[in-house]
Design a protein that fits this description.
The protein is of the alpha/beta class. The protein contains ten helices and twelve strands. The protein starts with a strand and ends in a 5-residue tail after the last helix.
């Protein structure tokens, strides 16, 4: 079936209201209805692994996606009737960047960096090495040193830095250089045959910046930190894509946080106009 809109969204503190700012429940209800429209192909793009995505869907009553780009872009799944099918051709696409190295190899290589604390095994996979880092560390210097070490060993890697403000801890993901959320979205768009102007993304944090600053129509939800907002605006301008980024904000009763921010972006880019869209297009006839 042809889907006119490829709607891609981050989960934590974007789709899921699990940050410190208040939610706007009316928007969540509207969005859940609107996503049942045949006009939407829903994609979750997240740092979570598959089990945690499934837990989030159940716990927060989220719409079931059609696809999921998980583990910060290192896995892609197609979801049909609750069955998750891993796209192995995506792993083939990204594996060459690591020149034969795997997760265990890289963790041994970076063991001398005492500032890096390996995350739980469930948050690791073959092409994703994840660490906790104290926010008190000199992050720029640390990332430069880690990146240089990897490059010296012929490893092409992306270092994705973000902060979990609810836990006050830094998060570092080391991925194949091509295994970004941005490349994952583009790979999916090309495979599914969507035109560029029919792709939309919503995010909130540092690991969303490559997409937010790209040519993909995007919204940064209002509950993002001021630092991320400034970074997103600056990067989008530097890349020549200021017009494709929208920053959600408080509008009357609406606060622009989480799903309300996603809806603001959809409205701004004229994908979603009013509750009448849901009544006209809903699969369930609501």
């Amino acid at each position: 079936m042809h889907h006119p809109l490829l709607l891609c969204t981050d989960l934590d503190r974007t789709m899921i209201p699990n940050g410190i700012q208040p939610d706007f429940p009316e928007s969540r209800q509207f969005f859940s209805q609107w996503c049942r429209s045949e006009a939407v192909c829903l994609v979750y793009v997240t740092g979570r692994h598959k089990t945690l995505v499934e837990e989030a869907i159940a716990s927060y009553h989220l719409p079931m996606p059609d696809y999921a780009i998980t583990d910060v872009g290192t896995k892609i799944y197609k979801i049909t009737d609750g069955h998750w099918q891993n796209w192995s051709d995506w792993e083939d696409e990204i594996s060459g960047d690591w020149n034969g190295w795997d997760n265990a190899d890289i963790r041994r290589l970076l063991a001398p960096f005492s500032a890096l604390k390996a995350q739980e095994e469930a948050k690791q996979n073959t092409y994703k090495v994840s660490y906790y880092v104290s926010p008190d560390e000199n992050v720029d210097e640390l990332l430069e040193q880690v990146g240089a070490n990897l490059a010296e060993n012929g490893i092409k890697a992306s270092l994705v830095w973000s902060v979990d403000e609810t836990q006050d801890i830094g998060l570092l993901d080391i991925l194949p250089s091509e295994a970004t959320k941005l490349h994952g979205i583009r790979f999916l768009r090309e495979r599914l045959g969507f035109p560029k102007h029919k792709v939309f993304f919503a995010g909130d944090s540092g690991n969303d910046l490559p997409v937010l600053a790209s040519d993909i129509l995007s919204v940064l939800v209002a509950n993002a930190t001021e630092e991320v907002k400034q970074q997103a605006v600056n990067l989008a301008k530097q890349n020549g894509h200021a017009s494709t980024l929208y920053l959600a904000k408080k509008q009357g009763r609406r606060n622009g946080n989480y799903v309300d921010g996603i809806l603001q972006g959809l409205e701004y880019f004229e994908f979603c106009n009013s509750v009448n869209d849901v009544k006209a297009d809903s699969k369930d006839g609501d």
